[in-house]
Amino acid sequence: MADCTPMIPADMSASELELNEFVKHSELGARHLKSGPASQLPTLRRILHRSLHDKAHIYLVDLEVEMSPPNLYLPLIDLSSTDRASTAQSIRKACMDHGFFYVINHGIDDFIVKSLFRESMKFFDLPLSEKMKLERSKDHRGYTAPYSETLDTSSKFKGDLKESFYVGPINDSLNQWPSKESLPAWKVTMESYYEKILNVGFRLISLISIALNLDENFFTKIGALDSPMGFLRLLHYPGEIPESDKGKYGASAHSDYGMITLLVTDGMPGLQICREKDRSPQLWEGVDHVERALIVNIGDIMERWTNCTFRSTLHRVVAVGQERYSAAFFLDPNYDCVVECLETCCSETSPPRFPPIKSGDYLEERLRLTYSQ
Prior knowledge:
By secondary structure, the chain is of the alpha+beta class. It contains 11 helices and 17 strands. The protein is globular and about 55 Å long. InterPro entries: DIOX_N (IPR026992), IPNS-like_FE2OG_OXY (IPR044861), IPNS-like_sf (IPR027443), Oxoglu/Fe-dep_dioxygenase_dom (IPR005123).
């Protein structure tokens, strides 16, 4: 650790000039400034100012603990490309290497995305008593309050900081909606975005089929996309965190349960991924916001189908001191669809790792564990 804990002289001035010089000439500080956003610098400055007030001691600062991890540059997939074979190959590499990628030129207008976030903010701004009138049902539709779920069941902290709202298939009578009196444009906005994001999901699944050396309509032919269980989940992460919640996550470490997830965010940082699940200690990397891009990741069911050829990557959301809004669309197979290893993903030397299972049984068990903590 000695090579990554720079020593600060006890008589060093706390002036901004000298502070900047320390940052620039610290080997680790320079490495972080090159690999991460400039927003990390104020955090470092606060640490140093606090240390420099007391000149009776020499301080060692562990910058790797105090500073955010470097950001990862994910592959960028252009959905408007007419070269489907090349696009599919790019998706295949992204799914094997990262399990995450950006999608641009997806066809969802900025106006629809802005409307989505505007209506989402309006709902989360309501008093808790009003939101709880639409509390999540046993069918997983409606509002979940902060601390209601624990995504990382091994965590010592119980209850993630976020609040959320689930919307199921838009023609589903099980959905819950805020009243038209309180939020007149809410339902139609959610329905509009749902239709658009579902269409993008279908286009991606077709390309993923090609990437797996299957017919582009494979998942449709086996019934996976007959009445697919697509869930739109609005998410709100708090800004100010009380002292009692320090150490908790907006969303603790987890992998998604279904086929693929399509995420849109308001641009606030906080999303981190861990590409190697079994690595110890885990290496977490930040995911940058790319304007007008969706963030797509592979879920556990797709990982099972592909015999781990495509990776379902651990991810989490850390508190950043500012409110954060996002909307995740989980495209899951029909509940009656049997998920078993694809022929193109196994061989004599690489036999199936998982037994066949009904999609609905798998998803229900994962949800039960999430909400039983």
